[in-house]
Design brief:
Oligomer: single chain
CATH superfamily of the largest domain: Transcription factor, MADS-box
Strand content: under 5%
Number of helices: 5
Helix content: 55-70%
Order of helices and strands: HEEHHHH
Largest sheet: 2 strands, antiparallel
CATH topology of the largest domain: SRF-like
CATH class of the largest domain: Alpha Beta
Number of domains: 2
Shape: elongated
Number of strands: 2
Distance between the termini: 63 Å
CATH architecture of the largest domain: 3-Layer(aba) Sandwich
């Protein structure tokens, strides 16, 4: 049975919010433990809850102090090297997604021009009504195709002899 997607919004009902907090806290601590065990890394979790009067530290307060002390012993530059706040994380994700989008746009453009090339070869389209950009892109795709054909011919000729 699949779980329903959880809406990431403030839970207005205080009882439900406390219950969800306890479940999520338990799951988060389990994930930190799994991370340390499976990947062999030092990690700690410090959780402050308005529902409890105390701050909870995993694996223990002394273990958390040890990990934080080790982290604090790094230079400021080393500390910030891999750290991301939410804004930095989102900027990084936006940049990565924008890059992927640009690559997909270029791939789609090349496929469109390749299709246009085949339409021109088969007589479905002509080059008479192409814009300058389309004509230049068609020239690039055509030259790329001719280069691939030339390389294949050379390969087959060498293989045949």
């Amino acid at each position: 049975m699949t779980r329903n997607k959880v809406k990431l919004e403030f839970i207005a009902n205080e009882t439900a919010r406390k219950s969800t907090f306890k479940k999520r806290k338990k799951g988060l601590l389990k994930k930190v433990e799994e991370l340390t065990t499976l990947c062999g890394v030092d990690a700690c979790a410090i959780i402050y809850s308005p529902y409890d009067g105390r701050t909870e530290a995993w694996p223990s307060p002394t273990g958390a102090r040890r990990v934080l002390g080790r982290f604090m012993s790094f230079s400021q530059e080393d500390q910030e090297k891999k750290m991301l706040d939410q804004e930095s994380y989102l900027k990084q994700r936006i940049a990565k997604t924008s890059s992927q989008l640009e690559k997909l746009k270029n791939d789609n453009r090349e496929k469109e021009i390749t299709e246009l090339m085949y339409d021109c070869i088969s007589g479905i389209s002509t080059v008479d009504n192409l814009t300058l950009e389309d004509a230049m892109d068609l020239s690039l795709v055509t030259n790329k195709g001719l280069e691939m054909i030339s390389q294949r011919i050379e390969f087959l000729q060498k293989k045949g002899h």
